[in-house]
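re: ur question from earlier - yeah i can do the single chain one, its not a big deal. heres the input i used so u can compare w yours
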Amino acid sequence: MPRRKPKKAAPARKRPESTAELRKALARRTKAELVDVVLELAQADRGVLRQLTARFNVPAAPDQLVAATHQAIADATDFDEREINHNFDYDYEAYGEVKRNLGRLIDSGQLRLAMPLALELMKQGSYQVEMSDEGMMTEDIEDCLSVVIKAMQKGDLPADERRAWSTAMRANDRVGFIATQQLESLSNR
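and the output i got, formated as tokens:
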């Protein structure tokens, strides 16, 4: 299943010198102008926003992380319904954002905020897998979910809460095989 990959730059010897001219034009601008342009680009393109946020490790409050994770889940699991049962493209960078944000929530002591986000990812991601031809995004989904599952294994949540969440996760799995062993071991713990 193809992932949406950024277009690769042409080799240096074949690349037009447009970046050299752009560099000169940018060098003549003030820092404030450059910051404004970068922010405009980030507001216009969530992919650019994700890249900048990750690259500069921008701190965010838990409510901002939750909102950003909801959006990243929507972006990651989006697909064109006209391409059902085909190898459609998907946004693997958005899956990276989901994983990063879940980790940031957990690192800040907000496991309970990460739990419903993982449920949402399971529901939307397993639907995407179900509608695809080969389900190649399964590994990306499991990679994101493993952050929450590991935190729950190490955490001090009551056993009944852990089991209830694990049961809900398996109930939201439309294909019946996403992170099954990890979730079962969490229930039996």
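The first helix runs from residue 18 to 27. not sure if urs matches, ping me
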